[in-house]
Design goal:
The protein has about 200 residues and is of the alpha+beta class. The protein folds into 2 domains: about 10-80, Roll (SH3 type barrels), CATH 2.30.30; about 100-175. About 25% of the residues lie in helices and about 30% in strands. It contains 3 helices and 12 strands; from the N terminus they run E-E-E-E-E-H-H-E-E-E-E-H-E-E-E. The chain has helices spanning about 70-80, 100-115, 150-175, and strands at about 15-20, 25-30, 40-45, 50-55, 60-65, 120, 125-130, 135, 145, 180-185, 190, 195-200. The chain has a 5-stranded antiparallel β-sheet, with no helix packed on it. A 4-stranded antiparallel β-sheet has the order 6-7-8-9, covered by helices on one side. The longest helix is centred in the last third of the chain and has 25 residues, at about 150-175.
């Protein structure tokens, strides 16, 4: 499967997407999904700006147009940004525990391994993905915020897979040390450190 290449320079620019089947879509780029590469365009219909999602796989070429983004659409994009939904001051530095810092690094590595670009950490130690999704400490699935439903769901799915992997690893490593020839290992009672004789 071809991995999408996300061009951050297209954000808030007007583009024309030439797609398969001779279909053409144009509008201002609100975001490009960091995982799927799908485009979210806003164009004016009957005086109202409405979003259109164009799948990455359908796009054959992208043309950047010269139109300046209208002020009302620029303001709309600002209100959709996860940064604007935070109640904390932008220059307020929050300290996090070493355990959370470790999880933050694991998540950043996860995004890098999945070729997700545009990932930053702000002064509040929130992970911002492509200016579309915000993950607040303690960085769980429930800590993901964003008004771009498509990108939000993709990020939540990735975090969910990470949490499931951690649970499996913890289960495999879990077990009490056998003391005096008897103990519990992986939920089974062991006698003399040899065979499993009964379930706990």
């Amino acid at each position: 499967m071809e991995m999408p290449t996300v061009d951050l320079s297209l954000i808030r620019k007007k583009v024309q997407l030439n797609c398969i089947g001779d279909k053409v879509f144009s509008g201002f780029v609100y975001t490009i999904d960091p995982i799927t590469g799908n485009y979210v365009l806003y164009s004016c219909t009957n005086g109202t700006y409405l979003p259109t999602i164009v799948r990455f796989q359908a796009v054959k070429s992208v043309e950047v147009l010269d139109d300046e983004i209208p002020s009302e659409l620029n303001d709309l994009f600002d209100t959709l940004s996860p940064e604007s939904s935070s109640s904390s001051s932008a220059d307020e530095l929050e300290e996090i525990s070493s355990e959370l810092k470790c999880r933050q690094e694991i998540i950043l590595q996860l995004f890098s391994a999945n070729h997700i670009q545009g990932v930053t950490v702000n002064a509040r130690n929130e992970i911002i993905i492509h200016n579309a999704v915000c993950i607040k400490p303690p960085y769980t699935v429930d800590c993901c915020l964003g008004k771009n439903v498509m990108a939000l769901e993709s990020v939540r799915n990735l975090l969910g897979e990470l949490d499931e992997k951690e649970i499996v690893e913890e289960t495999e490593e879990d077990g009490e040390e056998v003391v005096n020839g008897e103990g519990i290992v992986n939920g089974k009672r062991v006698v003399d450190g040899e065979g499993i004789v009964e379930s706990k």
